[in-house]
C-alpha cells in the first residue's frame, strides 16, 4: 500500500477515533450536566417543599397564636361577666331581702285590715242589727278566705263560728 493511502487511513482512523472520543466525551459531559440539572432540580424541589412546610408551620403558629389570643380575650370576658354577675347577685340578694321585708309588712298590714273588716262586720251583725243577710254572709266568707290565704291566726276562725250562729234574715 501506498504511503498516501496509509497516511490517509491513519488520518481517517484518527478522525474516527477523535470523533469517537469526542462523542464519548460529549455523552459523559451530557450525562454529567443532566445529573447536575437533576440535582439542581431536586434541590429546588426540596427547597420549595421546605418553604411550603415552613409556610404551613408559620401559618399554624399564627393560628395557634390567634387561638391563644382569643382564649385570653374570652377568659378576660368570662372573668368580667363573672364579676358583674357576682355584683348583680349581691344586689339582687339585697333587693330580694328588701322586697321580702316589704311583702311581709304588706301581708301584716293586709291581715290587720282584713281582721278589722271582719270584726266590724261581725259587730255590726251581732250587736247592732242582731241578724245577718246573704250579702253579709258572702262578704264575710270572701274576707275570711283572703284572711285564711294569708295564714291569719285562729282568732277569726272563732269569730266565723259565732257569725254563722247569728240569725239569717
Radius of gyration: 57 Å
Quickly count the domains: 1
SSE topology string: HHH
Number of strands: 0
Helix percentage range: over 70%
Total number of helical segments? 3
Quote the distance from N terminus to C terminus: 175 Å
**What share of residues are in beta strands?**
under 5%
List its salient traits.
mainly alpha, rod-shaped, 169 residues, 0% strand, 91% helix, 3 helices
Secondary structure layout plus pairing:
Blueprint: H1 3-129, H2 134-149, H3 155-165
Helix pairs in contact: 1-2, 1-3, 2-3
Quick description:
This protein is mostly helical.
Fold and architecture overview:
The structure is a single chain. The chain contains three helices and no strands. Helix 1 packs across helix 2. It has 169 residues and is mostly helical. It has helices at residues 3-129, 134-149, 155-165. It has one domain (3-165). The N and C termini lie far apart (175 Å).
Amino acid at each position: 500500500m501506498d504511503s498516501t493511502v496509509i497516511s490517509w487511513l491513519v488520518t481517517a482512523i484518527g478522525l474516527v477515533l477523535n470523533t469517537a472520543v469526542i462523542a464519548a466525551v460529549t455523552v459523559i459531559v451530557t450525562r454529567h450536566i443532566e445529573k447536575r440539572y437533576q440535582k439542581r432540580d431536586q434541590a429546588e424541589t426540596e427547597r420549595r417543599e421546605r418553604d411550603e412546610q415552613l409556610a404551613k408551620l408559620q401559618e399554624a403558629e399564627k393560628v395557634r397564636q390567634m387561638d391563644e389570643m382569643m382564649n385570653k380575650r374570652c377568659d378576660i370576658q368570662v372573668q368580667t361577666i363573672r364579676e358583674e354577675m357576682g355584683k348583680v347577685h349581691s344586689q339582687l340578694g339585697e333587693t330580694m331581702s328588701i322586697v321580702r321585708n316589704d311583702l311581709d309588712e304588706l301581708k301584716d298590714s293586709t291581715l290587720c285590715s282584713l281582721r278589722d273588716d271582719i270584726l266590724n262586720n261581725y259587730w255590726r251583725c251581732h250587736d247592732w242589727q242582731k241578724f245577718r243577710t246573704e250579702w253579709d254572709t258572702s262578704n264575710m266568707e270572701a274576707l275570711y278566705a283572703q284572711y285564711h290565704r294569708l295564714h291569719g291566726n285562729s282568732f277569726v276562725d272563732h269569730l266565723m263560728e259565732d257569725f254563722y250562729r247569728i240569725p239569717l234574715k
